[in-house]
């Protein structure tokens, strides 16, 4: 009787598990662009990040929705008194999607891969303080630093751990990613969809709750909106204000919002005329009316912003502290005259193929033309835009870039001489010194003082005219539960979602 009862209970357990599994769904997502690749150490575009970060791949650390550092693949860590040695204890029983065990050798290989000149990762500057990475034992990794790095734990959240066999491979992960995350790569139909399926061996028990994620590539905003309202799609992640406004109040649709860390910008190539002259760069800033951009291109859902997002309250300076952010056409014209350049200053402005960026570029074009420029807009396909960006093949470009919780993650790789994403060819000894100082300081007040000076200098004469920080929206079916929008645009919280 006992055995019979036990068999009944066990059988009921299996039946309940099967029913739960059967009820889990693949979440249909409407995405605006197709990724250009899926290698986490090489990608630079939002459509790629959206698929891989936190879904397919994970780092030693992670960033939560409050922008705090939390454990990732490392369950704990310790730092030496001098801040130059970090020891990470890895989680047990973590497997890659190919079934192999993830261990310290994979972590070491991933760090070396990002640092490799042959791989040429845009993330390399985030690990520039790391002198060596060593596997103490299969579950322990030791990082030796050349100097203390206050931003190390934040930076490590962006360094995906990949199998050690991929250390020297430049191509394999672009089309067939292999990570440790809650979802694993299944299929990619170019310009059609990317399908991820549930990682049944995921280390965090009970997750993910969904059977998978299907990123449907739907370039037309109106088509995505119809798909959401008719139930074809359950989620439109990281949408712009115009789309959010059109979806507000629709039946069975809910909106989630937060202040975006990502910044809209006009980038300038300082290695050639006219932007080799800082007065011309300053003139660009005076010519721009940022509030007008917020009103016209973001439908009021955003704020004018400087080099750091207002969401980073402990770091960002108020835009009122930047003299050049007070729009002044006469001042811009006077600066061009002082620079000795012939007006109108003819330049091309290459535009990232996103509707919000296109709208911003048109407003900026009109503003600059009133101040003595002659701007030609060049709308490009995403792959070509990224290639030209990487190769510094531009006069100016309009884009939107991801922000990070620690200023070092953005500033050092972007504005430090030789930084891994310093496509502007910018070099300034004072900025270099401040950035070097800020990343080695452990004292928060000292770091803040250094970054305040960096923001003041970059705001008006740097290679980037920072424009706005928008309200970041996600639109979803009311049945979707457990998911929230994150300020850094990560979709990692989909692991908690159910539908």
TrEMBL record:
Q: Cite a single Pfam family from the UniProt record.
A: SBP_bac_5
Q: Which UniProt keywords apply?
A: Signal, Transport
Domain Solute-binding protein family stretches: 68-419
Q: Where is the signal peptide?
A: 1-24
The record's subcellular locations are: Periplasm
Main location group: periplasm
UniProt entry tagged with the keyword rRNA-binding? no
Coiled coil regions, renumbered to chain: none
Query: Which Gene3D superfamilies does the record associate with it?
Result: Dipeptide-binding Protein, Domain 1, Dipeptide-binding Protein, Domain 3, Periplasmic binding protein-like II
Query: Which InterPro entries does this one have?
Result: Peptide/Ni-bd (IPR030678), SBP_5 (IPR039424), SBP_5_dom (IPR000914)
- The UniProt record lists the keyword Signal: yes
Fetch the PANTHER family from UniProt. Answer: OLIGOPEPTIDE-BINDING PROTEIN APPA, PERIPLASMIC BINDING COMPONENT OF ABC TRANSPORTER
Q: Which family does it belong to?
A: Belongs to the bacterial solute-binding protein 5 family.
Q: What is this protein called?
A: ABC transporter substrate-binding protein
Look up and give the organism this protein is from: Microvirga arsenatis
Recall the taxonomic lineage recorded for the source organism. Answer: Bacteria, Pseudomonadati, Pseudomonadota, Alphaproteobacteria, Hyphomicrobiales
